Amino acid sequence: MKTTELAIAHHQIEPARQWMSRICGPHDLAARQGGLLEFRHEAVRFPDLGTVIGRIRYGTDVTIGVRRGEHFESFSLSLPLVGRQSLHCTGENHLSDVRRGLIVGPDSDQNLDMAEGCRKLQVIIPRKALHRVAENLLSRPVTQPIRFDPMMDLGRPVVTAWWQMVRQTLEGWGHLAALCQMPAMAADLEMMLIKGLLLAQPNNLSPALDPALASDCPDFVWRVERYLNQHLQDDIDLADIEVVAGVSRQKLYDAFHTWRGCTPLAYLKRRRLEAARQMILDSPRSGRTVASIALSWGFNHFGRFANAYKEAFGELPSETALRRREGEEIGDPRSRVMEGDSPKRRL
After folding, report:
1. Tens of pLDDT, residues 51-67
2. What's the total number of domains in the chain?
3. 152 in Cβ contact with 229 (< 8 Å)
4. Which end of the chain has fewer CB atoms within 10 angstroms, the N or the C?
C-alpha cells in the first residue's frame, strides 16, 4: 500500500464533520457564530498504521466535542500556525497557540474551541497504532490506556523537534512523496513520528519507556508550570508559587531556570504577553483597545508593557493591531515552528 494524499474544502458543517469523523472518529462540530465554514483540510495518510498528518482550518469559531464511549479511537494532536484554540477536559482549560500544542485523546469528554483565524498543523494517530509502537518499544503488551499530558509545550526542545519533523515532512512532501511511495520507507517515517511522540511528550508510560526522560524534569516544575498556565489572569505572587512547588525558593528558581530557561515570574510574564498578543490579534472583531487588553492581563504601566511586548515579539503592540486591522495574517514572528510552503507544491 502507498501513502494517500487528502484534500477537501467545505462550507457546510455536516460534510466537514463527516469528513473528519472518517479520519479521526465520531465527534460533534458546531459553529459558535452560525453561518458558513471556510473548512479546508490537506493531509497525507500513511498506509501501515493509518497516521494522518496535515493542515486544517475551519474559517470561523467552532467547537469540536469528543465524547468518551462514542468510538473516538484516535489521538488528535494540533499546533496552531496562526491563531489560537483551547481545550476543556477533566475540569481544566488548556490554551494553545503557536508555542503550545494540544492533544485530544480518546478516553475522556472534551471540547476543543478553535478561533476563527486558527490554522494549524494536525496529526491523527489511531489508538491501535500508538499501542503497537509502545509495545515494540517496551517488548511487552500494553494493557492500560495511554494518557498524555494534553499540553505540548514548545519550550521543551524535544517537543519543538517533534513538531519540526511534522512541519518539515509536510513542507517537503513534494520531494518526499516519491520516496514514501515505497511502503517500507513510509512505515519507517510513520514509526519515527509515533516513537518520537511517546518519548518526547510526558505520558503514563514515560517511566517505563525512558526512566532517564521521566526523571529529568522535577515534578514540582511541571506542577508550577501548569498552575501558572491555569491562573494567568489571577493575582499571583512568589509566595503562591512557592506553596504550589512545595520546595524552597532557591531550589524552585534553580530548577525552573534549568528546565525552562527563566524564573517562574518571567515565565508568567511571557505567557501573559502571549495571551495579550492573541487578544490584540482579535481586537478588530472585539473592538477592545490595546490599553484595555494590557490592563486585563495585569500590565498596569502601558509604557513598560509596550517595551516588554516589543522585546518578546519584535514589534510594538500598536503595530500588531495596525497590521491586523489592515488584514494581514500575523503569526508569532519568533516562533520556532512556522508555516511554510513546499518549494515544489503545497499540501
Report:
1. 999 999 999 999 999 98
2. 2
3. no
4. N
